[in-house]
Amino acid sequence: MAEPMDELLARAVLLREQAMRRLETLVNAESPSGDAGRIDVVNRELEAAYTAVGARAERVPGADGDHLVCHWPGGPERSGAEHAGSGDGHILMIGHSDTVFPAGTTAERPFRLEPDGDTVTGPGVFDMKGSLVEVELAMRLLADTGSRPFRPVRLVVVNDEEIGSPDGRRLVAEHAEGAVAVLGLEAPLPGGALKTGRRGVARIRIDVEGVSVHAGLDAALGVSAIDELVDQLTALRAAVPAPPAAELNVGTVQGGTRANVVSGHARAELGLRFADQEAETAALAAVESLVPIRAGARISTTRLSHRPAWADDPANPLAAELIRLAGALGLEPGTGTSGGAGDTNHTGAAGIPTADGLGPEGGGAHSVTEHASVRSLLHRAALLAAYLGGHAAAAADKENS
């Protein structure tokens, strides 16, 4: 296995400048969540890139512009391979095209190669436009070596991951149907570790309606929506499981009009995180079963987004395969659980063999220090090509013969 792995990596290095040009184009083509026009520019770039390496690409209309789905045909099945991708079905890769940065950010911080010759910076370079380039490079490596994926591959690139994939999740669910392995293209954990579990997350909005009156003349006739909301939030602190099982963050609070008016409306947006299914059930039940404390107050809750907890499995067989392949490239990635949530929460929680964190190493996601390693991008592209090309299956065939 070492020789073909060496060839993949050597070819990846030769494609460095091509990958850099693509990454610069994607980073400087800003794509904030909800900006359909800018996301369309990125989609056109990706569609052309992936089509050139054998994909059948399709645009899927969404609430805030198109999502992108790509299909690559698979080659002949390898018999006798005991691994996470054996049996009928396809391999699913999951990524996203949106970033958290507002339009205009690149005017101050455009794509840049730092003096060390390896570090690239710019909004979205790490989360996750480097990963999108990585996919193109992996498929190019397979084509250049006369190979093809050993089974059909699908790539889903949603345009709303950074706001919880409220629309994109339907595509993830649709294409996860029948998948035998799911590769998440999010950034790895520090040190390059793969993600084999993720905390669940939910965004909940609480709306409180009170009775608005003059605070001086008719206070007794009013019902303060703000007071009701404050008391409800205090009660929730006690009702939601304590950290580390669950965490409750009150992200925003709004309400009232003037100091001399009893507030008739108040609203809060909450962020919930949970480590496992038990904590998730308890936390969501606490938030969604609120009842008014004050006579005359009304409360409603809206689940804005939700990703279920994906419990960590240290023995994750798909991650184990990837780690074996990485070893042939001189990499030693570990595994771990991410405190953040992503689209692989859905596939991991559903029991589909899933490994995330296959993007290039770097850091500073969602910040002015965001950066990624070009060297890591090339290594991870070779790793992705090796897995998709059936190197793990070939090794299993050899061991079982």
Task: Sum up the structure in keywords.
401 residues, alpha/beta, Aminopeptidase, Alpha-Beta Plaits, 2 domains, 24% strand, disordered C terminus
Layout of SSEs?
Layout: H1 2-14, H2 16-28, H3 36-52, E1 56-62, E2 65-72, E3 90-96, H4 105-108, E4 112-113, E5 119-121, H5 125-144, E6 153-158, H6 169-176, E7 179-184, E8 194-198, E9 200-209, H7 225-239, E10 246-255, E11 265-274, H8 277-288, E12 298-307, H9 317-327, E13 335-338, H10 344-349, E14 354-355, E15 362-363, E16 371-373, H11 374-388, H12 391-400
Parallel strand pairs: 3-6, 3-7, 7-14, 8-13
Antiparallel strand pairs: 1-2, 2-6, 4-5, 5-16, 9-11, 9-12, 10-11, 15-16
Entry summary:
The protein has 401 residues and is of the alpha/beta class. Helices cover 36% and strands 24% of the residues. The chain has two domains: 2-197 and 310-400, Aminopeptidase (3-Layer(aba) Sandwich); 200-307, Alpha-Beta Plaits (2-Layer Sandwich), CATH 3.30.70.
